[in-house]
Amino acid sequence: MLLKNDLILRAAKGEKTERVPVWLMRQAGRILPEYRAIRERLSGFKELVTTPQLAAEVTIQPVDILDTDAAIIFSDILVVPEAMGLDYEMLEAKGPIFPKTIKTSADIELLTTKTAIENLAYVFEAIRVTKKELNGRVPLIGFAGAPWTLLAYMVEGSGSKTFSKARKFLYSEQALAHQLLQKITDVTILYLKEQVKSGADMLQLFDSWAGILPPDHYKEFSLKYISQICDAVPEVPLTVFAKGAFFARREMGKLNCRTIGLDWNMEIGESRKLIGDDKTLQGNLDPCVLYTSYEEIRKHTRQMIKEFGTQKYIANLGHGVYPDTDKDKVKCFIEAVKEYSA
Amino acid sequence: MLLKNDLILRAAKGEKTERVPVWLMRQAGRILPEYRAIRERLSGFKELVTTPQLAAEVTIQPVDILDTDAAIIFSDILVVPEAMGLDYEMLEAKGPIFPKTIKTSADIELLTTKTAIENLAYVFEAIRVTKKELNGRVPLIGFAGAPWTLLAYMVEGSGSKTFSKARKFLYSEQALAHQLLQKITDVTILYLKEQVKSGADMLQLFDSWAGILPPDHYKEFSLKYISQICDAVPEVPLTVFAKGAFFARREMGKLNCRTIGLDWNMEIGESRKLIGDDKTLQGNLDPCVLYTSYEEIRKHTRQMIKEFGTQKYIANLGHGVYPDTDKDKVKCFIEAVKEYSA
Question: Which of A162, A171, A289 lies closest to B322 in CB terms?
Fold first, then answer.
């Protein structure tokens, strides 16, 4: 089906765009009352993730309500460990918990790669339903967690300020860590390819806990596997967003992907220099700017576009939108991008 | 009194040292059974902080047990907001909580600068007792939180993954933020000067939440005040440790202080280039290395010293030692520094 708005795909491919495309991480859900209305009827977050019709509905809400230039499939990075056999629970205020964690070689051997993709059928169905209902309005972004970030949760068992158990694992159990990362990588490659077959127009890898590793560990235990994924999934433009990995920007510029996401700590000009002119950049407004006045939001958005320029650029925040953000402020940001970059 | 071991002071001043001095952040407490034995007898953390004889005792423990080249006074960065009139509680697993937070100009006006220093008399007494009992064995480090980090707690009311309330305050209430930061800075300058008068041989500023700010905000709301403190406290060598502020290393090189602390995300060679040859550097072993084998600890320590060199350098971890670290592993790190740098 022909896309009516393919701005973000052209920006990702490095083609000329008449204005800067814009979307938000975590735009599907969190900030919209329309999302919360659906969410409240359900038993929990996971029911929403695993019910394709509902996942599709909340995926499309931000396109309808906020007028974003892309939809991102409503899901979670932790569906992959779950599909490999490591169940998680999503606790309301506390975040994800894994009742069992990975400690030994036997734990890793128990993880399935073979049936993992079948277990993720509900994601592919959600993508198909979404594509149908989007009817070509905007591209649909698929995604996965980067292998290191998934290992971090699978070993730590929950979110953490330090992820010290997961980081200890990298030092103490190097061979096991590589074995686990390779297994996650293999599944992730199949998972992303299947997302594309199901209709995803574009992909993003989230390395949410990149910033907690020392640079040498990041290269050894994260970038290596991200690089494998980039090489193996050439079908659609891929974005790598490694939060906090300021120290790896030069190396990220050499990845076989199209777009690099920046967080709000990364200076724009310096990042462009380190990453190089070939890549498209995405980001990186501080999500807290959306707490300020309409005037301030417009001012900061304009300044950001001035620094990034209007080509090879996808506007976004430097992280997911915070849950208590006023949706009218989000709209203001999106409109400001469209206005100032045209 | 003449110091028997003044290695760390000479390293900080850029003078020649026969080997690299070493100490740990959070060395006073946390990892030592001898500390926990004292702690268990008391009503809570704050009783320990506010009782000079006990604070002195746990300050000296790591010198006795671990053979560090410096003691750091046992205290907390949050004693300053408390002394200004904003009480905090230290909850066992949750960390600090401020029942009241700063929201308005009136809240800031209520904070005292005049009596703040009197309210901190127990810290100065703890320093005097410690100095007497140390009897010149090693230098004593005094410290304070950087103004931005204190504001972050005072506005947020607790620790936080995003400190989004505190960061919102910087965007929405710029004038109030500056008013509060100046007030904290004024008290901090008096506080550090009084620590020196009481016997502190050296000082460190902890900017624990530096890494959560965008670079322009960091310069405006944090470095500006750190710079004032550096200029106002020339009596003893001062170290600035701004965790996560990789983007400000060049500017930190221009501060009127002697030492810059690096976290484990910051590459050593690059940091030296950005900060310049004049400053002494401190850091930056990943605290997780101390979870590994004695052999691995020695290997990583040796590599670190090779990268830093043995002059204008103070060995440390890249953050506070994690509470579940084996004290024999800490000892191994300390001995490895002494052995490899001699």
Answer: A162
Kindly determine whether residue A292 and residue B171, on different chains, have CB atoms separated by under 8 Å. Answer: yes
Which chain B residues contact residue A286 at CB under 8 A?
Answer: 167, 171, 214, 217
pTM summary value: 0.96
For B77-95, the pLDDT digits (tens) are 999 999 999 999 998 778 9
pLDDT in tens, A19-52: 999 999 999 888 999 999 999 999 999 999 999 9
Report how far apart, in Å, the C-alpha atoms of A40 and of each of A44, A45, A130 are: 8, 10, 21
- Closest-CA distance of chain B to residue A305, Å: 16
Residues of chain B with pLDDT under 70: none
**Considering only CB atoms, which chain A residues are within 8 Å of B264?**
214
CB B241 within 8 A of CB B207: yes
Whole-number Å distance between alpha carbons of B312 and B323? 29
| Residue A116 contacts residue A80 (beta carbons within 8 Å) | yes
Out of A164, A266, A291, the one facing B168 most closely (by C-beta) is A291
Chain A residue closest to B166 (CA)?
A: A288
Predicted local distance difference test score (pLDDT) of residue A164: 94
Identify which of A95, A27, A37 has the alpha carbon closest to the alpha carbon of residue A65: A27
Domain locations along chain B: 7-341
pLDDT of residue A145: 98
In the block, residue with structure tokens 């979670």: A76
Here the tokens at position A263 are 């967080």
Q: Is residue A235 a contact partner of residue A193, using CB atoms and an 8 Å limit? A: yes
ipTM of the complex: 0.94
Q: Spell out where chain A has E strands.
A: 71-72, 89-91, 95-97, 140-145, 202-207, 238-242, 259-261, 280-285, 313-317
CA nearest neighbour of A171 among A230, A108, A204, A216: A216
- CATH code of the region A7-341: 3.20.20.210
| Residues A239 and A229: beta-carbon distance below 8 Å | no
